[in-house]
Amino acid sequence: MKHDSHQISFLDTLVNKDTNGNLSTDLYSKPTDRNSLLHYDSLHPPNMKKSIPKSQLNRVTKIVSDPASKDQRMSEMKSKFRERGYPSRILDNATMDHTIKERNSASSRIPFIHQYHPAAYRLHKTIRQHWHILQTAYPTINEFQHPFLPCFKRPRNIKDGLVRADIGSTQPHTTQRFLSHPKTGTFPCLSCNQCNNILRGNTIHHPHTGKRYPINNFFTCNTNFAVYLIKCPCGLLYVGETTQPVKSRISKHKSTIR
């Protein structure tokens, strides 16, 4: 465990607090860290090796808050790529693209996000042709003075229809074995030794007052998290509750009686 009142690391970020309580962030690497960036001679797709410097330079911009430290971290990141065999041409292009991206982000361009479609470029062209209407009608809105930023997101594919990321509830699932709507009341499950102790029906009859209480759901021996009622031959009633399946609770009651 590591603790400090002035700085703390979390993942790849180092958070510092000055004497005035202001927070600043910087890149953090473990003392045992080695330069494990993908080597340029690796047999990976060329586009991947071109995009890695861009993503790492973008990471420096997002994490490092101090402008002076940011330039130093950018130089250090480029040195790491040179050690891994990346040519200067790739690094210069990544730096240029990163600078253009920073300039565009500072201009408050409005992102237009939608699913990719082959006809989307015609839509973008139409919006660009009429964008001057917004610039003229709303000259005081800074976002309208710059062109919009088209952004694509992945459309729904076959995998989304076949694979579900959520594994669902951890509670056991009871399979419905009939197609019609289930009846209300208590019924035996027809697959355990306690079924002969279940009183079928959709009401509970009180033996002393004669009043009937309706059962508003469908319950069997496998139902858990239930409030149950046991009728004794002497005429008394016992009401209990259980988080286990009802058949397990009945089995324990019978064992206690024996």
Record the SSE blueprint.
Layout: E1 7-10, E2 13-17, E3 23-27, H1 46-63, H2 67-83, H3 88-106, E4 111-115, H4 120-137, E5 149-153, H5 158-162, E6 185-186, E7 203-205, E8 212-214, E9 218-219, E10 226-231, E11 237-242, H6 246-257
Parallel strand pairs: 4-5, 6-9
Antiparallel strand pairs: 1-2, 2-3, 7-8, 10-11
Helix pairs in contact: 1-2, 1-3
Domain GIY-YIG: 223-258
Organism: Ranitomeya imitator (mimic poison frog)
Protein name: GIY-YIG domain-containing protein
Summary, kept brief:
With 258 residues, this protein is of the alpha/beta class.
Describe the protein in words.
By secondary structure, the chain is α/β, with parallel strands linked by helices. The chain contains six helices and eleven strands. The protein has helices at about 45-65, 65-85, 90-105, 120-135, 160, 245-255; strands at about 5-10, 15, 25, 110-115, 150-155, 185, 205, 210-215, 220, 225-230, 235-240. A hairpin with a 5-residue loop joins strand 2 (about 15) and strand 3 (about 25). The longest helix has 19 residues, at about 90-105. The protein starts with 6 loop residues before the first strand and ends with a helix. The model has no long low-confidence stretch (mean pLDDT about 85).
